[in-house]
Design brief:
single chain, 257 residues, alpha+beta, Membrane-bound Lytic Murein Transglycosylase D, Chain A, Glucose Permease (Domain IIA), ten-stranded antiparallel beta sheet, 12 strands, 24% strand
């Protein structure tokens, strides 16, 4: 009888363990703001950079829409608009209609001149500039860790890439910049770093075991900033994103081969 009870308990334990393995949560890299939400209330730990990151609008647009000057200081309980307000007064409309009739002929002639110039040299300049920009982007970035890719840009839902690694492996800054977020308050990203490189680009490093730099700190390209940790699937990996104007872009278009 005792052996039979022991056998039943042992079988239950095995099935519960196997069920736990099979249904381990899979990490998703979606911001936790409700789609279509028009307002956001600032809570402890929020920065304009983190809200811009979560909403996919970027800090520049949020600063402009909410008249928040640099260094973008926020207060707990502050309401952030997640849309661009449009105001049109009667005076502005009447002034615009009056000015339109005066400047209409001038604008037409200027547009014709600009079109003529674009037709003559526009195609050549655009091809040269695109090649130059691609070369500059390849020189600007480096890989944060060098391992095989676990998930491509499309496989993560257009939210960066997942790179395999080892627990505790050093994560380096993909380019020089300022750390604008260092914490674990963003759902789905674990210990997260966000580095601002210029007015256009940010990079993000998630799934870290440990963060080695603080907010406001300037880092150099190749500087160690974190250590690789585990994702929710218990794999050692780094989730890496590059964002342009707040929107995720495919890092493989920017990183050297």
């Amino acid at each position: 009888m005792i052996k039979r009870i022991f056998f039943v308990l042992f079988a239950v334990l095995l099935t519960s363990c196997s069920a736990h393995r099979n249904y381990a949560p899979v990490r998703t890299y979606q911001h936790d703001l409700i789609p279509g939400e028009k307002y956001y209330k600032v809570v402890a730990g929020d920065t304009l950079y983190s809200i811009g990151f979560r909403s996919n609008f970027g800090y520049q647009k949020l600063a402009k829409w909410n008249n928040i000057p640099a260094p973008y200081t926020l207060q707990i309980g502050q309401i952030i608009k997640l849309f661009q307000a449009r105001y049109h007064s009667k005076k502005k409309r009447s002034a615009k209609t009056g000015s339109k009739s005066v400047h209409k002929t001038r604008n037409r002639s200027q547009k014709k001149q600009i079109r003529g110039k674009k037709r003559r040299g526009g195609s050549q300049l655009s091809s040269v500039n695109s090649k130059h920009n691609k070369k500059m982007l390849k020189l600007f970035w480096q890989w944060p860790i060098k391992k095989r890719i676990l998930k491509t840009f499309t496989q993560t839902g257009y939210k960066g890439i997942d790179i395999s690694g080892k627990i505790g492996q050093k994560v380096t800054a993909a380019s020089a910049g300022k750390v604008v977020y260092s914490g674990s308050a963003l759902k789905g990203y674990g210990n997260l770093l966000i580095i601002k490189h210029n007015y256009l680009y940010l990079s993000a490093y998630a799934n870290n075991r440990r963060l080695l730099v603080k907010e406001g700190q300037w880092v150099q390209k190749g500087q160690v900033v974190a250590e690789v940790g585990l994702d929710r699937g218990k794999r050692a990996s780094l989730h890496f994103e590059i964002r342009k104007n707040g929107k995720p872009v495919n890092p493989l278009y920017y990183l050297p081969k």
